[in-house]
Amino acid sequence: MISTGFKTCFYLRAFELARDGFTDAQICEALDIRAADLRKWKRDNHDFRDALERGAAEYKRSTERATVNMDGLTEKQRRFCLEYLVDFSLQKAAIRSGYAESGAAKMGTELLRNPVVAEFLTRELQKMHHRNEITVERLLREVAYIAFSDIRELFDETGTLRDIHKLPDSVARAVSSVEVVSSTDKKGITTTTAKIKLWNKLQAHELLAKHLGLLKEAGTLGDRRPDDGVLLELLNRVEQAMHDQTRVVDQRYIEQEAEKHLTLDGVSTPTPGG
Length: 274
Description:
This protein is mainly alpha-helical. The chain folds into 4 domains: 10-69, no CATH class; 72-113, Terminase, small subunit, N-terminal DNA-binding domain, HTH motif (Arc Repressor Mutant, subunit A, Orthogonal Bundle), CATH 1.10.10; 122-144 and 202-266, no CATH class; 150-198, no CATH class. 55% of the residues lie in helices and 7% in strands. The chain contains 13 helices and 2 strands, in the order ααααααααααββααα. It has helices at residues 10-19, 24-31, 35-44, 46-71, 75-87, 90-96, 104-113, 115-131, 136-147, 169-172, 201-211, 228-243, 251-258; strands at 175-184, 190-198. A two-stranded antiparallel ribbon has the order 1-2. The chain is elongated and about 100 Å long.
């Protein structure tokens, strides 16, 4: 039978239930009361409402402590990290994580400079790049295809453009786009024209030069986003973390892992031993 009368013991019991994370529906069931009675007491009985609020606050603090004890991050910080790994935008990640939009950019920068946050992102970046097989060797090979591409290899001995499916990998990987245009003249003769565009060789040369240490400057800000400096700092931490593992992990694996950084936001960083 459901009781509608308020009992003094409900103060302590309500606090304990809220502290244990019980919802309003669960509290009603535990106290054997109607939902309407709970709503009325929360509205009219200040002490009862206070007991519920103090219990709920204690539950929130306990869950936050449990989260922090695992990896040093609050739930909000963890969410920021995961959101940041989506598009590497500090401001957008902060907003999606629940921080105020007005100060999102500043908050994102502060979070990224937090050593605990940076360490968490370092681990996640390593996992992400390992899953996607982004390595030093693979990335340098792709850049080299572009840097040393030879337009003559697109044609056969007669000067005819080779079939796209028959191009060697070293040539095909340097191709940015292919546009095929067909037109028919008044005599019914159809002419097909293929337009081939290659990736920027000079830019590829610059990337390789930076990797080899031939260029002292990392480049100008250009069209980088305002938070790229912070991202570069983070990537340097990732590089250092991986460099420190050389005592226990094969050196070649470390070098492969380090190159992951080079594709993020167009930022190029030196690799271990480079």
